[in-house]
Amino acid sequence: MTTTTTTVTPTREKLKEVRSKISKKSKEVTIISDDKMEIIPMESFWQEFQGLEIKEIEVDCKDSLMATIKAKKGTVLDIHYHLRKEVVYVVSGKIRESMSNEKVLRGNTITFDKKQKHGIEFLEDTVLMVHWIN
């Protein structure tokens, strides 16, 4: 089963239009870069996005979203930001954050504030637990 992502220019009207198409019960992660905005609906099954495998972890909290993310060595997420605070825990593997060049090893976390630009390079096959908080 494939999941479609919606890509639009980051305008207020387009954001409203895209959000209206996503069920109010669904959860999504918004990824914004300088030239585009992508809204990824979170699902309880593994789905692919830009070389990542993503699966929602169900939590009983309306202001929070968690997911497991798997990526192969060499995968790169370009510079982007989210509309929520993001906490990334490295379950296995190793990543490098592109803006600070900080390496994050297994068992450690890195946190990004709301709208803080960041990018991630996967230095090994890696599994992350990611928590987005309103």
Summarize the helices and strands and which ones pair or pack.
Layout: E1 6-8, H1 12-21, E2 27-32, E3 37-42, E4 47-49, E5 52-57, E6 64-71, E7 76-80, E8 85-92, E9 94-97, E10 103-105, E11 109-112, E12 118-122, E13 126-133
Antiparallel strand pairs: 1-3, 2-3, 4-5, 5-6, 6-13, 7-12, 8-11, 8-13, 9-10, 9-12
Q: What labels describe this entry?
A:
single chain, 134 residues, mainly beta, Jelly Rolls, six-stranded antiparallel β-sheet, four-stranded antiparallel β-sheet, 1 helix, globular
Describe this structure in a few short sentences:
The chain is built from one helix and 13 strands. With 134 residues, it is mostly beta strands.
What's the architecture, going by CATH? Sandwich
Sheet with the most strands, sense and barrel status: 6 strands, antiparallel
* Overall mean confidence score, pLDDT: 82
Query: Can you count the beta strands?
Result: 13
Name the poorly predicted regions: 21-25
Distance between the termini: 29 Å
Estimate the helix proportion, in percent.
under 10%
Shape: globular
Strand arrangement across the biggest beta sheet: 4-5-6-13-8-11
CATH class: Mainly Beta
Total count of helical runs of at least 4 residues: 1
Strand fraction: over 45%
> What structural category characterises the helix and strand content?
mainly beta
What is the string of SSEs from the N terminus onward? EHEEEEEEEEEEEE
Radius of gyration: 14 Å
Kindly report the CATH topology. Jelly Rolls
Number of domains: 1
Task: Give me the CATH superfamily.
Answer: Jelly Rolls
